[in-house]
Specification:
The chain folds into two domains: 131 residues, 3-Layer(aba) Sandwich (Rossmann fold), CATH 3.40.50; 108 residues, HAD superfamily/HAD-like (Rossmann fold, 3-Layer(aba) Sandwich), CATH 3.40.50. The chain is of the alpha/beta class. The radius of gyration is 18 Å and the shape is elongated. The chain is built from nine helices and 14 strands. The structure holds magnesium ion. Magnesium ion binds next to loops.
Length: 262
Amino acid sequence: MNRHDFRAPLVARAIENAVEARRVIREAKALLFDWDGCAAIADRPEPAALALMAGKADAFAIVSNNTSHGRGFFTDRLRAGGVMLEPERVILAGVETLRRARQIGPRRALLLASPRMEEAARRMGLELSADEPDLVVLLRDTRFSYAKLTQAANAVRRGARLLVGNPDRTHPSVEGRVMPETGALLAALMTCVDPQAVEVEVVGKPHPTLFLRACEALGVAPHEAVMIGDNPDTDVAGAAPLGLQCILVRGPGGLDLADLVG
Ligand SMILES: [Mg+2]
C-alpha cells in the first residue's frame, strides 16, 4: 500500500487575506519558508522573502523538498542577499532522506541522486551498491537513465524497500518553464512495479518530517510557527494538520509575497 496518495483531497486551508497574514506573521514565534517558487525563483531569493526573514532574523527556517543540494547552497544564496542563516535551519528533503536511510540501518542502497548527494551519502556512511540492493533511495537525479530505471525497478520487485525524497512531479523554473522533480522519476518507477505491492516511504513535504524538524531546530511548537509556501498540496496540506498556520503565495488563491511585508 502506498503511504502517499498523489490525489489526496485538499482539506487544509491557508490564510486568505493579506491583513490577517501580516498579523499572523507579526505574532508568530517562527516562520518556515518553502524555497522553490516561494522564497526564491530559480534559486534567486525574492526581495520580499529576504525582508520577511530579516524581520525574524533568529526565528526562521527554510523547509524545502529540494533533493539535489546541500545546506550551503541555500545559506550562500541568502548571504548574498544580506541574510545570515546557520545551516541547521535549512531543512531539506534530500538530506533528511539520506538521514532516514541511515536510520533504517545497515543496508546496501541503490541511490539515484545527483553526484553531490551521492558524495553526501558516502560521507554519512551509507553503503551504495547496484548489486542486489535491499534499499532503493530516490532523489532528483538529472542523470536518470533507462539503465538506472531497470536497476531500481528490479530491486523493488525483488523486495527492496523504497525511500523517496519528495512526491513533486515538477518544480517551477524561469519563464514559466518547469523542471522535472523526484516525483516524475517515482512515477516512471511505479509503472514498472505492482503499485499495490510496494510501500513507498516519502520523506519530503507533505509528510511531517521536515516541518517537525524545522520546529525542533527553531525551538518552537508547530502552533507557534507559520509555514509560507506556494504549493497547496505539499506546503499547506502537510503543515496545517500539524497545527502550523499556513500562508499560500502565488498561483490560484495565493497571496502576493510582497503584500506580507510590513
Ligand atoms: Mg515551492
